[in-house]
Design a protein that fits this description.
This protein is an alpha/beta fold. It folds into two domains: 48 residues, no CATH class; 259 residues, Rossmann fold (3-Layer(aba) Sandwich). Helix content is 46%, strand content 14%. The strands form two sheets. Strands 3-2-1-4-8-9 form a six-stranded mixed sheet, with helices on both faces. It is globular, with a radius of gyration of 22 Å. It starts with a helix and ends with a helix. The relative contact order is 0.13. The N terminus is likely disordered. It comes from Gillisia mitskevichiae. This is VWFA domain-containing protein.
Length: 313
Amino acid sequence: MNFKSSIYYVAIFSFAFISCGQDPKEEKNLVESTAILQAEGSIDCPAYINKNKPNNLNISILLDLSDRIEQPKSIEKDVAYLGSLSKAFTNHIKTKKLVLLEDRIQLFFNPEPSSSKINEIAEKLKISFTKNTPKELIEQTQKLYKTEPIKLYEFAKNDAKGIKENYPGSDIWRFFKDNVRDYSMDNCHRNILVILTDGYMYFDKTEMKEGGRTSYLTPKYLSKLNLKKSNWREEMQKQDLGFIPAAKDLEDLEVLVIGINSLNDDNPYTLDIIQEYWSQWFREMGIPEGNYKIKNAVIPSNMEGVILDFINK
């Protein structure tokens, strides 16, 4: 028996098992889906799951654990944003039939912190829902995302002892180059990456410059770019400023960046410039314009609507 045939017979057994006591019409649909699976030879996921791909959430959260969390109210906002993300996720779970559950939410850092306590919390926040998941996990998910992140930030701040260099940092550029496909994308889900960051990007081991393109954007570097006038966009194009693309063909990825914050108070266009850096970067990596959104840091009650709309669109 070849591998695809094995998948087919396992699917037959699974459908027979889960259909016990279910509506005959639903059982018939599952059997028909199995037939499609055999015809298509899919080995990534059962056809009835693949058919429901836009409704299968795969939410990855990339958390910037740089010294930005020393900024006033940064942690408070992050924790609230994470709570809103879990709310959007669990609201979605509640709308699905049990047999169609194939959804997950998880938290990542890059690089991985050396603190075992931080990594233990991240593991707790890695949650998957399938047809076998108990309903109690829905409420537990929201509770975990409300209580555990604050502990995570406390560990990060305590480990750093107020010294900038002691923070794990955040290599967002390298995450897109090396990890985004493996960690945040698969063929059976709607892939959503949420990045909590202030919009600046820097990691000392990933510092590259190619003409006007860089792997970083720091307050000091931005202040040198002479983009303080209303023609800043034209100047960016003229100098070919922007991030170096880290990947390509990311059409199957949606990205929500939240928490953009200006540390260049002498430039009234800072937030616009940061947003353009990110938008251009996403476009050049193949992410469709309608698949990403970049939002400034705002009060959590206002951001919740943005998050719910993005996840549940």
